[in-house]
Amino acid sequence: MHDNQSRTSTPDTLPEVITRYLTAHRAHDTATAITAFTREATVIDDGNTYEGTEAIREWLDRSATAFTYTIHLTGAQQTDATRYIATHHLEGNFPGGTIDLRYQFTLRGGLIERLVIEP
Questions:
Q1: How far apart are CA 34 and CA 24, in angstroms?
Q2: Side by side, which strands form the sheet with 83-92?
Q3: Phi-psi region of 109 (alpha: psi -120 to 50; beta: other; left: phi over 0)
């Protein structure tokens, strides 16, 4: 695949590390979710940046308890050799009650190096 071509993926064709993270995150299993990230990983969510596994662990723990919600994977796309987008629909007791979010993953060495979550 050329670097400038994107292709639609099905959830079952996402790399194992992404599905491991998504499954663990949905189950509020921070210990497993954190294993999907490089030590120097960065997560950007809701305008906040979390750098390194300790900051990401704290973000995961906080996000697991802040609101109650359901999350449903609605689409997946590979944008180049190391980048994937997983689109999710969330419903819950957070402001607005529903939202569609794009989880944009960048992989390095078989792990998540960067995750940007935005509408």
A1: 9
A2: 7-9, 69-80, 83-92, 98-108, 111-118, 37-45, 48-51
A3: left
